[in-house]
């Protein structure tokens, strides 16, 4: 058994990890997909940097941060994901990065087509539809077969590329926020390349719980969050552009603070959350010390499988995410098939069992309840979820 798989089951080890976080009274949080928590040491480091910036104001920022420290932090981020520093730029979050990539992609002409599916994030859908109004392109919208399989996902994209030869750009989400479905990005990207379709990848939920290599995936454009599974303060994300493709993304609204060959010109220039950025070296250090995405992914997958394996075949419950290990991660959704109102069931989980979850709408397969454990969630809390689902079904 691999070390990460063995450690994922070690409740004593993960309790020592949970002890690094301040415990807050209240419901058991099974909605950790929204954003992650900072460790106590990261919170303390963040607070120190807030005080430092508040005291030194623009003196440190102008003299040191902008010219030196921010570049070093960017280099550390690039090292973390295995790319060149010149290929990443900080943003407020994944959405901001993805919107910049979509609106500034310059290879579209009137009459071209762009593609999105039912599982994309709503702001990504909105940005792709914005292209139709402002660039004269046609938006092709598809729905994925449910339940999804590796082969059905590839077949849907293959058929779509053949049916719509004017497709030039598509949105693709690595880990879908509605159901937790993990898309086979590398295989889809290979198909897209065959048909001359560029991909803008939404990696918001992928970074920190999935291991990946952007070059191996065949991805040239992507947006990520740092405040979900990496453990950073809020308001931190970044965009990625493969260096050889930088010219295909215009400077954002004529951004002139950086040269044309600098990726930072592809995002709006503004005052960032400097104390949060200064905290990233410690965040990266703690992420690596734990074992990175391999260790984190193994743990949340283990917790996910505890509840899914217990309820998958129960009448009255449908788990909407497949069990193919290529297609799931710690985020998984389900629905009560005997109850039409999933929001009412979320409220019952909270009021009757002290379990906090969230409804996700918008997938073609219908509303579902998203369940996302964190690295501090215990196996005992997952067993409470199993009991609640069994009684409520």
UniProtKB/TrEMBL annotation:
**Start and end residues of each Aminotransferase class V domain:** 58-371
Q: Which SUPFAM superfamilies match?
A: PLP-dependent transferases
Q: One Pfam family, short name please?
A: Aminotran_5
* Origin: domain of life: Bacteria
InterPro entries associated with the record: Aminotrans_V_dom, PyrdxlP-dep_Trfase, PyrdxlP-dep_Trfase_major, PyrdxlP-dep_Trfase_small
Which GO molecular function annotations are given, in alphabetical order? transaminase activity
- Keywords, in A-Z order: Aminotransferase, Pyridoxal phosphate, Transferase
Keyword Transferase carried by entry: yes
- Transferase as a keyword of this entry, yes or no, is yes
The protein's name in its UniProt record: Class V aminotransferase
Report the source organism: Pseudomonas kribbensis
Q: What is the lineage of its organism?
A: Bacteria, Pseudomonadati, Pseudomonadota, Gammaproteobacteria, Pseudomonadales
């Amino acid at each position: 058994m691999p070390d990460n798989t063995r450690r994922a089951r070690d409740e004593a080890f993960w309790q020592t990890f949970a002890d690094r976080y301040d415990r807050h009274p209240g419901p058991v949080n099974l909605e950790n997909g929204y954003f992650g928590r900072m460790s106590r040491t990261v919170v303390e480091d963040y607070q120190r940097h807030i005080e430092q910036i508040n005291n030194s104001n623009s003196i440190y920022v102008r003299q040191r941060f902008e010219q030196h420290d921010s570049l070093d932090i960017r280099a550390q981020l690039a090292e973390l994901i295995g790319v060149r520093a010149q290929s990443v730029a900080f943003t407020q979050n994944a959405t901001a990065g993805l919107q910049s990539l979509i609106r500034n992609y310059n290879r579209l002409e009137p009459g071209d087509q762009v593609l999105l599916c039912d599982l994309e994030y709503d702001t990504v859908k909105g940005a792709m539809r914005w292209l139709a109004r402002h660039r004269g392109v046609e938006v092709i919208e598809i729905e994925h077969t449910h339940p999804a399989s590796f082969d059905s996902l590839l077949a849907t994209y293959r058929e779509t590329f053949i049916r719509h030869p004017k497709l030039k750009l598509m949105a693709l989400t690595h880990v879908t926020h509605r159901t937790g479905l993990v898309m086979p990005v590398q295989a889809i990207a290979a198909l897209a390349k065959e048909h001359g379709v560029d991909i803008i990848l939404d990696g918001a939920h992928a970074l920190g719980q999935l291991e990946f290599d952007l070059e191996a995936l065949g991805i040239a454009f992507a947006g990520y969050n740092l405040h979900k599974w990496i453990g950073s303060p809020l308001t931190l994300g970044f965009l990625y552009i493969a260096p050889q493709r930088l010219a295909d993304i215009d400077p954002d609204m004529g951004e002139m603070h950086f040269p044309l060959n600098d990726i930072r010109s592809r995002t709006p220039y503004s005052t960032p959350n400097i104390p949060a950025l200064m905290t990233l070296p410690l965040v990266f250090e703690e992420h690596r010390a734990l074992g990175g995405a391999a260790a984190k992914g193994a743990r949340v997958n283990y917790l996910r499988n505890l509840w899914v394996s217990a309820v998958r075949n129960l009448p009255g419950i449908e788990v909407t995410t497949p069990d193919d290990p290529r297609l799931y991660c710690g985020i998984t959704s389900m629905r009560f098939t005997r109850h039409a109102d999933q929001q009412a069931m979320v409220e019952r989980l909270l009021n009757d069992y002290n379990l906090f979850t969230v409804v996700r709408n918008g997938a073609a397969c219908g509303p579902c309840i998203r369940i996302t454990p964190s690295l501090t969630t215990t196996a005992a809390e997952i067993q409470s979820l199993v009991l609640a689902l069994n009684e409520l079904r």
